[in-house]
Amino acid sequence: MVAITVILAAVIGTFVLGLGDSLNQAPQSTLNAEDASADYSSNTTDVFPANQSAAAFELSQNGGDAIPFADMRIVVDGDSTNAQFEQGSWNDSVLGVFVNGANPSSGDEFAVGDSLTIGNSQANTDTGLTTGNSYRIRLIHVPSDSILLDTEVTLR
């Protein structure tokens, strides 16, 4: 009985002193990923957002908690593509993440009703994306190291 009282007091004390606030919990959100257009162009002269056919994937936030862009990492894996995007590096050498035609800013959040596009960010480079192939798309909450979205999308 004494041991249970000591353990209970330690747990309550931890939260009363604020130590429990440092736990990084993943946001609860409903996310979706899909092909962004019916006619993806891997033409190396097409760059998104100037050319909508250069949009490859679209991620949408359909409900739940807003996710700060500063807290997320997006990973796209496929046959010859392995791209990672996060705060400070929303563009890799050929692909980029765009919200309303621009890279996310540090204070922006991915909230209900928002969508982001992954598309060609550089002209005259091979994106490594091929229509008809499937790609694994993951959205990771970095502070909690939790995977919020893990799905496969076929590029049309």
Characterization of the model:
The protein is mostly beta strands. Helices cover 10% and strands 38% of the residues. It contains one helix and ten strands. The strands form three sheets. It has a four-stranded antiparallel sheet, with no helix packed on it. It has a four-stranded antiparallel sheet with strand order 5-4-9-10, with no helix packed on it. The protein has a two-stranded antiparallel sheet with strand order 3-7. A hairpin with a 4-residue loop joins strand 4 and strand 5. The protein is elongated and about 70 Å long.
Give a brief rundown of this model.
With 156 residues, the chain is mostly beta strands. The protein has one helix at 2-16; strands at 29-35, 55-64, 67-68, 72-77, 82-86, 95-98, 109-110, 115-120, 134-141, 146-154. It has one helix and ten strands.
